[in-house]
Amino acid sequence: MKKYTPQNGYPMTDASPIISITNLSKVYASGFQALKSVDLDIHRGEIFALLGPNGAGKTTLISIICGIVNASTGEVLADGHSVFKDYRQARSKIGLVPQELTNDMFETVWNTVKFSRGLFGKAPNPALLEDILRRLSLWDKKDQQIRALSGGMKRRVMIAKALSHEPMILFLDEPTAGVDVDLRKDMWQMVHQLRETGVTIILTTHYIEEAQEMADRIGFIRQGELFLVEEKKALMQKLGKKQLTLQLAEPLAEIPTALQALPLTLSDNHLQLVYTFDAQTQKKGIATLLRQLSEEGVDFQDLYTSESSLEDIFVKLIGASV
What we know:
With 322 residues, the protein is α/β, with parallel strands linked by helices. The chain has helices at residues 58-65, 87-92, 109-119, 126-135, 151-163, 181-196, 208-214, 232-239, 282-295, 310-320, and strands spanning 19-27, 33-42, 47-51, 73-78, 81-82, 94-97, 169-173, 200-204, 217-222, 225-231, 241-248, 264-266, 272-278, 300-307. Helix 3 packs parallel to helix 5.
């Protein structure tokens, strides 16, 4: 993967993680353990998706990294700065777009974003703020009060606020919650554009196809435990299944005895055979199947393949981790 500096977009040579999490735990006063010894490195310039069911610990993890919640044990470094011991330096590297809309509804878009930049002690930079608003399609709304905007535009304002102090790391906690499909796709494109400018992006989402579309790596968390982190392509290859569906020339009463050892199912109308296989055994498995079908005199008139989605893998993994 190409890495970029936030300043000029040139390839980076530094392979050190931009976020490093070590033995991070959180136990609340009630005794509830929200996080259990989480270890995670997030690479510079990547899009990392954190997936898990409600209550899994996603927001707690983000809140600790962003300085909103105190950890019970462990350490978090943001671009080499401890978020606990060197809070100001670490927090200046981070932008956060939370789940809940927290804008001042009676303030204008421009004043809201300008104020957010000032909170981090940054000198005024109207040109930068204009560029951010234009990239988010908010420039023509800069003088409008936030209460007059649609839900999707309000969420874009949250992103503009998070980017106003030029962070190297951007957390998006359910960034497309409550927005329509078209706006969701626009935001996917915007996330890719941000990454190209050098921003490292960490997102949580309930829309699994969102993670499949955008993420370079994916982490799965349940009951406070980060139990799997994997590159998306490798994950899909290792845990995904493919299916070959054969449209039969004539109905088949049952699967021939010689084929019953294969992972085959016969459709209810007896006109389709479905063969489920691992991508890694694709060539050998399909060749064997087609040869055996021919030997058994089973003719087909069409075939097509399909494969597991990330959502299929998510459901399987989360179910297996209970």
